[in-house]
Amino acid sequence: MLNTGLVSLVRRKDGCFLVIVYIDANGKSWAIDSWGNRAKINNRQLIFQSLISINTDQFNWLLECECISSKIDLPLLWEMSKSNNNLSIEELAVIYYGDKYNPKEFCGLLLSLYSSSISYFRLNDDIVYPEREMDISQQHNRQENLKKLNDELNDFRLWILKGSKIELWTDRQIEWLETLKEFVIFGVEFVESKKIRKFLTSLKFEGGLTLIREEIYDCLVDRKIISSREPMGKAKSLIEKVFPEEIIHVVENIPEFIHLNNRKDLTNIDVITIDESSTMDIDDGLSIQSTEDGYMVGIHITDVASIFSEKSSIDNEAQNRLSSFYAPEITIPMLPDRISQNIGSLIPGVIRPAMSLLINFQKDFIIKNWEIVLSNIKSHKKLNYQEVDNILDHKIVNGDSDKLKILYKISKNLHMDRMKSGGIEFNRPEIKFEFNKDQVYMKTIPKLTPSRRMVSELMVLFNTLLAEMCSNNNIPVIYRSSVELKNETLVDTSVDALRNYLLLSKVRSVAPSTNCSPHFLLGVDKYIQVTSPLRRYGDLLLQRQISHFLENGVPLYDKAFLDGFINDSLGKIRDIARAESDRKLHWACYVLSRRIHEIFSCIALEWRDSDLLVEFKDFPIKGIVKTKNQVNLGEIIEAKLIEVNLWQRKTILSA
Predict the structure, then answer these.
(1) What is the DSSP-derived secondary structure letter of residue 398?
(2) DSSP string, 511-553
(3) Around Cβ 590, how many Cβ atoms within 10 Å?
């Protein structure tokens, strides 16, 4: 029981200390410490209670006890008493003070025994046992290591927060830095959540992990540990730059030229490829020939499935990657360069295996009939979009001009038919970036130039006709579809940016499926994707499925297999698409961050409370405008760029 006015030693979370315990007339107890603070204690916190009553000047009495405690030489006391197996506290006091010690000295010794960071004595009830010398040495080592740890942690914290210099980095500090980089770049989902929370607490960071991550990101950029150009989150995790050595070895042994029998020889047809001037992985080509009653158009897709077998090491790696990764600063191919840029690419003048769709058009550009064949082709010429646009615009005349102009007329007719069937066109320009040493340049490219529209339309035709063939022949494939937009949801505005925004806000994505349903946005009844086998594993998979059917009369994969592929791959495919979009937006914000305080023309898209969501007129990037002005949606306003948050990829303007 607690006695009135007695000196007591108690232990709490913040350490051991002396208090004076009082009990009032009602039996209620409380304690007063040497600072005069009142504290609640219970019997479990009580370590020792003296029989010394303190009736006057109790606070000073406690302070004097604490002063005595701070001066006690416990190592000396241990040397004096280590030969004794067990002692009472009173006997220990006699060894240290002699026979004549006073209550203050006794309480000071008691406090010192319990509050010392090094345990020289083990206490059990009222008996004191001197610790072994080896155990004391281990305690000293642990204490020194702890001090070193705390010093390193404090230096590291001052470096990360204030930029204080660390003269010589320790292994631990380097490891901490890597932990922070991992946390910032990959996010909490890539590191152990409890581990990072504990570490951040030790660095005295407070708040939610998202805000802390942004704060540390800013610090690491300031310290030049990471670059503001660094990919973050999913974008970083998806970049697998290097192919395994075993795959590189297998690829090196693939013959430079693959000649396959039992294929239709189309090498006498002039095939033209149209891509970006920098494109190396060329997977599609076009051809056109005059016939008695019209034209035969060829759409040729490189037959990647014929280069390596199913479930080979190359195939397994491609399936693991699922897609090429296209970020402004880097391209990571799904397939090794020797396949994607050489053996499997439709390089001019080289025979390549292909899957060719041969379509007979009447002179009025109506489809008469068509067939899909496995072929050998030879590209006649590689053109870029700008060159083809110049030809179609009569700025350049060459031997391919007439052919390209007819192809363009055919594509315009195909496009018109799709629009009549309910297709919707998004005339949204694309952003392109150029990197020159430390400089980054951003420009926009119209998505619907004549050459781009022509190629896109013919690829849609290829995918649509093959989807029809697969459906008619009960070949399991992965169909693409979209939800129908009702007439009342369609947007009537002449402002492309506003129209695109309002339409996209109403479009609901539909997961790929082995069940066929219309693709209302494209205006077609059936649609698959098979025109990019060098870049998308799903296209390669369907190419292999269709090739097997053409050669053997039966499909290679059943519906259950393709359903499993969809379930296994859909999440990562979406992550890749999101990461590519994030990287483009990051670089756009990076360029804009160099243009703070400039005035930009912006198109009003939507009011969000008191803020106005806009799109920059010169490039399809959204921003928030702080304004008190009345602005109509679709209206063009002038706004000053006042802030760019690279971490959140947000731009703030004022008007």
Answers:
(1) -
(2) --BSS---BTTTTBS--B--S-TTTBHHHHHHHHHHHHHHHHS
(3) 18
Distance CA 324, CA 335 (A): 8
Give me 95's structure tokens: 């060894």
Give the number of residues written for the chain: 655
Structure token pair of residue 555: 């499909």
> How would you label 44-82 residue by residue, b for 16+ Cβ within 10 Å and e otherwise?
ebbebbbeeebeeebeebbebbbebbeebebeebbeebe
Domains, the chain, ranges and CATH?
4-131 (no CATH), 147-226 (no CATH), 256-433+442-572 (no CATH), 595-654 (2.40.50.140)
Q: Which amino acid makes up residue 423?
A: G
d(CA 275, CA 509): 28
Q: What is the pLDDT of residues 479-497, one digit of tens each?
A: 999 888 765 455 556 677 8
Q: What is the DSSP string of 76-125?
A: HHHHHHTT-S-EEHHHHHHHHH-S---HHHHHHHHHHHHH-SS-SEEEET
Residue 621: pLDDT band with limits 50, 70, 90: very high
CA–CA distances in Å: residue 163 to residues 113, 201, 206, 223, 591: 41, 19, 19, 7, 26
Within 10 angstroms of residue 168's Cβ, the number of other Cβ atoms is 5
Instruction: Say what the pLDDT of residue 497 is.
Output: 83
Count how many Cα atoms sit within 13 Å of the Cα of residue 416 in the half-sphere of its side chain: 8
Token code pair at residue 54: 């303190």
